[in-house]
Amino acid sequence: MPNMNMSLRGSVPGRHSAAARFGPGSVGTSSSWRPARLSFTLLLLLSLLSLLGAPSPAGAAPPPPARSAATAATAATANGSAVAQAQARWGDRRLDQVSFLGTHNAFTNYEDSRWSSVSQSESLRHQLDNGVRGLSLDTHWYERSTWLCVISFGSDCYPSDVYLCHGECKTFAGVTYALPRQSFQSSMQTVVDFLAANPQEVATVFLEDYVSAQQLGNALGRVRGLDQLLFRPDAWNVRQQGWPRMTDLVGSGKRLLIFSDAPDREHLGVMYDRAWTVSNFWSLGDLGNDVSCVSRWADVPLDRQESGFRRLFTMSHHRNVPTLINAALDNGAKLRDRITQQCRPAAGGRDPNFVSVDFHRTSDSSGHTPASIVTELNARN
């Protein structure tokens, strides 16, 4: 305790007499020595307790609220700035009146894992950083395999969990799954972290879902910060009142939507896509020449009308086998013309809310890219 000892001992270094330490008249007088010694001991104990983090005595005044008020003010300012940015970008348009760029099989990319065949070139985070706001992911259950752990010399020793696979999670490394394995939890954490860092943005995840509701819920439950961001349509009475404005989503912080092709997980905040969206059949065919825009579901036409509510329109535009060459042929003028000549008329004159492609940064020489086409759609509405 350097400071305390200096105050008790004075400024004379080294070993001192009692008179030097405690003042004149203290030496040889027990009545003056004992209080001083007790005071020294008490100060020493109090200092040790403060260093050990002992709780404050009962009745001690709580810390002043100025810091928490400042924090709240900062958060309010940040939220106000995010809403202002959303207002400048979207105006008063609702979610079903705007368009977003999406990526097909967003998880099969060269950066997140070692896939031999991919649909995207960038990691999930880089896709988000580069303007993608709709991510398509395939969820599968993987049961831990001692055999795979052994034959991989320890490189495939993963626990049982929900992972992103393109088929069965044990069949062909690099084809139906990739190493390192991509857990659904960590991939969703990437999305949540992006949204936390960009409070003016809204993102959507589309699941091709091969796991149970319980398995999915357990994985989602481990994603830090998800509950604060997850949009739940029942809480917003969407069926009766329609989709909220973009500024309302940003202002409320509910900026993450999740859809699944499985129907039994609405209690998780995961919407059944067939109940909330219309969608075209996903494939352009092997040769890329099927540019018709027909519904993915026979009983849900693209121009379906419902009282007080309009489904989101998700448009897929990619071939059976993803390649950079195919994307270069498909992602420019062909995509733009298909929206204008096929999908917009088929959907009753409305534009798609999500345009999902392979290799979203690749296009032809027309000057049109998937991102610029989505920007055009938003300029029209």
Summarize the structure.
With 381 residues, the chain is α/β, with parallel strands linked by helices. The chain is built from 15 helices and 9 strands.
Helix content: 25-40%
Basic shape: globular
What's the total number of strands?
9
Structural class: alpha/beta
Low-confidence spans = 1-67
Distance between the termini: 70 Å
- Provide the residue-averaged pLDDT: 86
Number of helices: 15
Strand content: 5-15%
What is the C-alpha radius of gyration, as a whole number of Å?
31 Å
Largest sheet: 9 strands, mixed
Order of helices and strands: HHHHEHEHEHEHHHHEEHEEHHEH
Walk me through this protein's architecture.
Residues 1-67 have low confidence and may be disordered. The protein has helices at 2-9, 18-22, 30-51, 66-90, 124-129, 146-151, 184-197, 213-221, 226-229, 238-241, 246-252, 273-276, 324-330, 333-346, 370-380; strands at residues 100-103, 134-142, 161-164, 203-209, 256-260, 271-272, 277-279, 312-317, 354-357. Helix 4 packs antiparallel against helix 11 (246-252). It is an alpha/beta fold. The protein has 15 helices and nine strands.
Task: Fill in the keyword field for this structure.
381 residues; single chain; 15 helices; disordered N terminus
Secondary structure layout:
Blueprint: H1 2-9, H2 18-22, H3 30-51, H4 66-90, E1 100-103, H5 124-129, E2 134-142, H6 146-151, E3 161-164, H7 184-197, E4 203-209, H8 213-221, H9 226-229, H10 238-241, H11 246-252, E5 256-260, E6 271-272, H12 273-276, E7 277-279, E8 312-317, H13 324-330, H14 333-346, E9 354-357, H15 370-380
Parallel strand pairs: 1-2, 1-9, 2-4, 4-5, 5-6, 7-8, 8-9
Antiparallel strand pairs: 2-3
